[in-house]
Amino acid sequence: MLSVSDAQAIILNLVQPLDRQRDIEVVDLLTADSRILATPVTSPLDFPHWDNSAMDGYAVRYEDVQHSSTEQPAILEIVEEIPAGYQPKSTIQPGQAARIFTGAVIPAGADTVVMQEKTRREENRVFILDAPKPQEFVRHKASFYQAGTQLLPAGIKLNASEIAVLAAAQCPQLSVYRRPRVAIFSTGDELVTVDRPLQPGQIVDSNQYALAALVRQSGAEPLILGIVKDDPVALEKIITHAVAIADIVLSSGGVSVGDYDYVDKIIESLKAKIHIRAVQISPGKPLTVATFLTPNSALYFGLPGNPAAVLVTFWRFVLPAIKKLSGITEGWEPVFLKVRSHDELRSNGKRETYLWGKLHLIDGVYEFHKAGGSHSSGNLINLAQTNALAVLPVGQTVILPQEEVQVLQLSNR
Ligand code: AMP
Ligand code: MG
After folding, report:
1. Domains defined for the chain, CATH in brackets
2. Is residue 379 lining ligand 1, measured as CB closer than 6 Å?
3. pTM for this entry
4. Is the CB of 66 under 6 A from ligand 1?
5. C-alpha dihedral over 369, 375, 379, 384, to 10 degrees?
6. In angstroms, what is the span from residue 285 Cα to ligand 1's centroid?
7. DSSP for 38-76?
8. Structure confidence by residue, pLDDT tens digits, 331-389
9. 359 CA to middle of ligand 2, Å?
C-alpha cells in the first residue's frame, strides 16, 4: 500500500497552481489580508524617502564635532528647528547645527546626528559633550529599499506585515489569485442534514460542515453541493457537475470496499484517471485521488466517510493541495514538531497512525496530551478542541510517557 509520504508527493505533483494571468482579481489593500499576491510589487519610492534622523537631537557636520568631549565640547549655533514632516530651509555651515527630531529630514550640509542626551543646550547654542561616529543616527535615503527594485515577490500570503509594507509603498490595490473553488458533497443513504429529525439508522452529515469550515479556513471558497444517495445515477450526475465547476472536489464516503461504495467505479466510467485508491494511514486508509480532463483539470478527493478520517485526510493531503493550487510558492507541506508525549500512545504498527490531542506549553516546552475517550475512527466527539495530531510511524507500536513524538500542528487554533 502507498505510504503517506509517497501519497503526498503524488498529490502535490498533480496540482497545477492557479494561472498568474487568468486566475487573478484586483482587491483593495484593506481587504487583501490572507490573499496570495499574484504579481510582484515594485515601488517608485525609495525607503527612507530622504536622509532622516533616527534620534531626537542635533544635526551637525561631523568635522565640527569629531573631537568633542565633556571637557572640551564643540559649541554650535542652532540655526533651525526641524520637526518631522517639514522640509529644512537652511544649509548647515561650519559651526552650525539644527535641532532635529526622529524621522525629520536631515538638512543640507549636516551629515551626522548627535542624540540630545549627549548635548547641553544654552539658548541658541548647543554643547556637544561626546564625539559621535561619522554619519551616526542618519538613516540614508534608499538604504532600506531602492525604488524600482522588487519589493514583494508573487506567491506570498499577505499578512499584517506585508500589508504594512504595501501601504507604506502606496499600493492601494493589488492583484491577487482568485480563491480556489472547492466543491463538497457527502454520499450515503443514512445521511440527513442537521435540521432533520433522525429516523432509525440515520446519522447527521457532519462531514459537509467540517469540510466547509476547513476549506474556508484554508482561504478557498467552498461550493456546498449537499448529500447524495448511494445511487450510481445520482452520483454520476453530481460528480460530473462538481468537476465542471470546481478546481478541487471533496466527496466523503463511498470509497471503501462495501457493496454501496460506488464512487471509484463511477470516476472510472467518467474516464478520469485514478492515481490513489488507498493509503497506509490510520484513520483514512480508503482514499481516492483522481484527475479529470475538465478545462480546469479538476482534482478529485474521494475521502473516507468516517468523520475522524475526513479531518485527518484533509489536514494531511487536501490542505497541502489547496495551498499549492492557491498560488503560494512554498510551505505547502504540513508542519511537524518534535515534542514530549504526556501519555502513552499506541498503534498496531501497520499504518502511519494519527492520534488527536492537545499541545500544552509546560515550562516553555510543548507536551502532547492525547484526547480522552475512544480513538476509533467512527468517534468524532473527542475531536473537539484538538490542536495537534501525534504521528506514530509504520512499525512503531508504542510511545511511552515522556518520550519524544512527532506531532502535526493544526493551525487556526
Ligand atoms: P462509508 O465509507 O461511506 O462506508 O462511511 C463510513 C462511515 O462513515 C459510516 O459509518 C458512515 O455512516 C459514516 N459517514 C459517512 N459519511 C458521513 C458524513 N457525511 N457525516 C458523518 N458520518 C459519515
Ligand atoms: Mg457510505
Report:
1. 4-18+178-325 (3.40.980.10), 31-44+143-177 (3.90.105.10), 52-139 (2.170.190.11), 336-409 (2.40.340.10)
2. no
3. 0.92
4. no
5. 10
6. 14
7. -S-EE-SS-BSSS-EESSSEEEE-HHHHTT--SSS-EEE
8. 999 999 999 999 999 999 999 999 999 999 999 999 999 999 888 877 888 888 899 99
9. 33
